[in-house]
Structure formats: C-alpha cells, structure tokens
Design a protein that fits this description.
alpha/beta, homodimer
Amino acid sequence: MIENPFYSHEFHGEYDLVSIGRLDLEEGGCIPDCQLAVTTWGELNAAKDNAILITTWYSGTHQIWRDVYVGPEHALNPDRYFIVAINQIGSGLSTSPHNADGANADLAMSNFPKVRIGDDVVAQERLLREHFGIERLQLVVGGSMGAQQTYEWAVRFPDKVLRAAPIAGTAQNTPHDYLFAQALNEQFWSDPGWNGGEYKSNADVVEGIKRHAHIFAVMGFSTEFWKQEVWRALEFDSKEAFLAGFLEPYFTVMDPNDLLAMAWKWQHGDVTRHTAGDLAGALGRITAKTFVMPINEDMFFPVRDCRAEQELIAGSELRVVEDVLGHLGLFGVAPTYMPQIDQHLGELLATEV
Amino acid sequence: MIENPFYSHEFHGEYDLVSIGRLDLEEGGCIPDCQLAVTTWGELNAAKDNAILITTWYSGTHQIWRDVYVGPEHALNPDRYFIVAINQIGSGLSTSPHNADGANADLAMSNFPKVRIGDDVVAQERLLREHFGIERLQLVVGGSMGAQQTYEWAVRFPDKVLRAAPIAGTAQNTPHDYLFAQALNEQFWSDPGWNGGEYKSNADVVEGIKRHAHIFAVMGFSTEFWKQEVWRALEFDSKEAFLAGFLEPYFTVMDPNDLLAMAWKWQHGDVTRHTAGDLAGALGRITAKTFVMPINEDMFFPVRDCRAEQELIAGSELRVVEDVLGHLGLFGVAPTYMPQIDQHLGELLATEV
C-alpha cells in the first residue's frame, strides 16, 4: 500500500469501514478481508423495509451523493428512507489497490486482482444483509458505473430490488465505452513514472493523470458544453483554466491503480454473464420497476444505447435527463439537473410495486 | 529532415512537387521555398474555367481522393473537369517538418513554424494562378481540415470560388475540437522517444502514435460503428484486430511533427480572422453556392455545429451525409457513402451560378 491523503475522512467526511470478510471473486482469487466504505442517512425502520442503496461511479464516492443528491429537499429523503451508499471496491475508500494491507497485503498495487461488477454487488448484498439486516431495497440507484451495479442488482437479485434507477449507464458495456476506458488507462501505463504499477506516490504519475483528465474533457462533457462555455458559470475565464483548475485537480489526487481497477470493472460490465450472452434474457429477469435515465448529451452512454436496453425491461420507462454538461452532468452542476432527478426518482418511489 | 519512406511516390503514386517560392506566414516568419505536392486529373480547357480544387485533411493526402472520390463514374469527373488536389503544408508530401531541407533546412522538425489554414489557401491560390493560370474555380471541396480550407477559400477569395462543398468540417474550429486535437497531440509529446521533436525516426515515437490512433478510434468512428461491429465488413474478427490491423498502421507510418503541424492548423482554423471575430460577417462574404455536408454520426464535427454555420451562408444548403462510420466515413468504406457524395456534388455542380 501507499499513503494517499485524499482517501480519508478529511476529504470524504463520515463513513464507516465495514468488513464483510473474505470475498471470492468471479475471475478467481479472493479479497481475504473485503472492507467496504459505507455512509448512511436516515433511520432504518423496524421492518427494515425502507432502505435505498446508492452505488458509486468511476472516480466518484458517496461524497457527491451526500453533497448533491441526498437531503430532505430531495427524492432521496433521509426523513423517509434509510439511505445507504456503498463505495465500490477499488474506489480508494473501500478495499483498493493503493490501500491493500494487513490481510490484503498480497493484493497491493499491481497485484490487485480483477474485480467484477458482480463481485461488488455480491459484497454489497452481504453487507446489507449481515450488517443491517436488510433483505429488500425500495430502490437501487447509481450513475455511470453505479448504473452498471444497479442493473446487476436487478438482474442478479430480482426479489431484493423493488425499484431501480440506472442513470447514465448501461447493463452491458458497449465496445465504444471499452475503447474509451482503454484510452484512459493507457495514459497511466505510458507514464514513465508508472513503473509497472509500483510507483511510490500517485504524484509520480501526475502527467499521465493529467492526460487522462484531458481525454475525459473531450468525452465527459458535451460538444455544446464547450461551445457554450458553460464553465464560465463555474467562475473560470478560459477552458484552459477550467481544465487546470477543475478537471485536472479532480483526478490528480486519485490513485491510478484504483482508477484502473474500476476501469477494468467498467469495461467488463455485462449482465448477460447470467444468461450466457442473452441480453433480452438477462434484462427479462428484472422485476423491479425501472426508470432508465440517460443524459441527453452523454457522449459515451448515448440515449440510444440506454433505450435499447430499456425496451427489454418489462414495465420500465425511459426518462431522459436533459443536461448540456453531458455525462458529467452527474456532478449536478447545472441548476436544472437535480429538479429532473428528483422528479423522476420521486415518481419512481411513489410507484406502487 | 529525416527519411520517411511513407511520403513517397511508392506509397502515394503520381504527384508533382511545385515550388511557389517564399511564403510569408500569418504567424510570422516564412517558408523560404514552399513546395506543394499536386495531383491533377483531366484537362484544363482553353478558357481555364473548368477547374475543381480538392483540399486535404489531417493525415490524409490526394491519395484517398484518387482512390475513392475521383473518376468518370463520380461527380468529380475528370472527363468534364480539371481536378487539382493540393496536399496541405505539413501533409508530409508538401513542405513539412520531417522533409524540410535545402532552403528550408532551418524549419526542420521542431523548428517548423506555425502555419495557418489561411497560409495554405494563399499558397494554393498562388499555385493555381501562377502554375496553371487558373483564376476561378468551379468548386472547392474538402473534408475535415479540407472543409476548413474550403471555407477559407470561399471567405478569403469570394470572387474565385463559384461553388463550395465543405464536408464534415467547420469554418470556425470548435473548442471541443481544439481539446480533442490537443489530447491527440499530447500522445506524441508524452512519448519518451519524442525528444523535444528531435527523434531520429517516427518509429521512436511509435507508442505515442498508437495511443493517438486509439483516441482516434473513440472519436473518429461513431458509437454505433463499434456496437454494430461494422469493422467485420473490413474482414477483421475483433475490434482489437481492427485497431492493430487498420487504425494503428494507418498512423504509425506517419511523422509526428507533420501531424502536429496539421493539428495546430486544425485547432486554430477560424474564418473570423477576416472579420475581427464576427462569424456572421465572415460567412456573409461567401458568394459561392455552398452545400454544407456534415456526416450524421460525426462525433467531433456534429451536424448542429455545421448547421449553425450553414444558416449564416446566403443561398446555402445543408446536405447531411448518413454514415454509421462517423467522421471516418470520409474514407468511403461504406458502400452507401459515395452515392450520397456524388448525388450532392453532382447537384451542386449542376447548379447555375
């Protein structure tokens, strides 16, 4: 392991590290002591039937959900629900390459095993059941890689998921997304400081992380975001200042091995592993009331890819979120974003199931 | 200069190197002996009024036009027109960083000056006038950066351009395109073999060139190209084989300094340099009958960016080309591509002006 101060309570506020013990992995091997970083809001009722699960995206943690999505003024209302955010494996808060030590010491850095979306969901289900006694979820919701986990939950544990809201993500990763993630990954691997993944500090790979940020700038925001200079609303006075002052520092504090662990998961996300490649069969297993929520300007999870999956889910609805930011609309920067999210999630939660 | 066998008659067939003498540059400095690689088809008539100019795109040369676009079965018909393709400065065939020697020796490699789209168009106009005696063009047509040159022609020399067909490109480069090109450029600069641009062979930078190709894969083709596995039509059996067998070798033969010279031009293309930043004013200068021809699946010259410019050109028409390949539809791989191009260019050439 290496020290990285970003992955700490100082930068991520309150969360608990909960061990679920040994987690056997789909690709082989195991995490001997799988620890998941968990944040909750609200109170679990006596019947333990008012829980909502939030899953996290590539590079994201529970923090953005706390700051933007959860609150008494939102559909994700802790006055009504017990809301649990579980940071994904590799997130840097849960068991991850950079922090593997103790029983997990053999998994540190370049030795971290391949973890799949399904491994996360199995780990999350165990945590919810064993730690909280939760057997069913009113809602699973997540964006991007969180949408992948949401789909995996609904397909793998249909009886446990009453409602599902995958935002800006797909059930089966697309080849275009695979290539995009690979182009990001290559920025780390090509950095002279990479050292086969055995760098001493993420700062050794800072140039690669910056290039990674620059590619994210091209795909993560829409062409219109740049054309309309929406970054001016964030009080930057040039696109270069926005890159240097927002997108680069967002990523440069992070650990490249952690990002790579998540990227591999993202690239290989695929609910059809349950059905030997049959997408209609996999999505046909879903009994949750599902709102599929792509972002209209998303360049790597375009609406049509999400619609194609939505049409295979019985009783589902396509709820397109309008946001000129594109995929990174997920940050909730646009004042018009959260009202749409709250509208859709509010209607979904109000739906009898 | 360095040797690069790709930029030769062996790989590019017939072309003539025509010197237009000293070319003073908009950014300052000059090319002491500017040589342009020129290919022609057909015969210039006695009135010298049957000429068509083809401009070239980033990484492309006259070759793709010869192989795909020009012929008696096409609108660009050498039985009717005298068709001139002029390879842009930095193309590797015309004066470029890798081949600068003799009078241009001081411009070699990392010393190559900044060249603008306007410099190319001034050079092309001089060549056509002094070398061929051509004062007016029936049509200027080009794709991508060739579209930038087409727009520059129509704005700078409105009396000389009767018709214009910018395909898959814009008159004023967008900030998104700027960032995309920058992400490509950074792949070269970050290669340990880059050596400040003073590498001994493009092979020294091959890893950077491959990463450049991989980013092009994400933006150059559409999400649907990858989803529908259109590469199977090119007889590859995996997307990885397609990258390794098509897109990587397409770029790895090229010279990084040459690509960077073109990229800088692409990034700074802007017809409003003629009108102090006024786009409507610049496009209002155009008297050519103009067909603006974006490709519907283009991820970096999206239709809406092209439409916004088209609406500022008097008498122009928007002719959207449908091609699942996206921007690299320009290669003419889809059997449905050239019939659309021929239809539009045929109608344009048939329009009385």
